[in-house]
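User: I'm writing a tutorial on reading structure tokens. Could you give me a worked example: one chain, its sequence, then its tokens, then a sentence or two explaining what the tokens reveal?
Assistant: Sure. Here is the example chain.
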Amino acid sequence: MVRSICKGLSSLFANIDDNKETAQTSNPDTFDGSNPKALNTFFTACATTFIGRPKAYRKPCSRVTYALSFLRGPARDHFAPLISEADDTRIVPPMFEDWPLFKAELTWNFGPTNPIADTESAINKLSLTEDGKAIKYFVEFNKYKSRTRFNDRGYYVLVMNQMPMRILCHIAECIPLPPDYETLQAFILSIDAQYWNFKEMESSRKKA
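And here are its predicted structure tokens:
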């Protein structure tokens, strides 16, 4: 049903330039509002498509129409009356022509009630295991870092507390110590890459 509704809405935007672009992007997983933490992932997936096909989605209304087509359940039902009314009256609600406003509406009704607290909790639970790779750890860490408000020292201490002993031993030998978070991150990534290169060489020797 939602696809037919969105098809009616999209007809209101006849001037959308849906150029054939070659970038291959994946559609977002559908969002039904049952898991507030999934909303940011949904927005990120939509943004990936918009970046990959900038001509087709350069207009806010085309972005909103795209996102609407992947809503299900309560999230879809929340917008369904407005979509039907817009299709009948040919009067488009402001939020359907304003991507940030649409995102705000979806977030207000189906997003986390306290996203900053949830993100702070998530970043505090991270850790790099002895057999883990630092690059994967920092992808997760920096994802949460962009959504929190700690100072540089706070992030520095967090990372130090989440490192395995094999990393901490190298840091202890570093004189002077990395002065800030960015330098610490670069140092950890370097020594971790060396560690895994050595492990790979060691494995190759055993097989020879």
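What the tokens reveal: Residues 12-18 have pLDDT under 50 and may be disordered. The radius of gyration is 23 Å.
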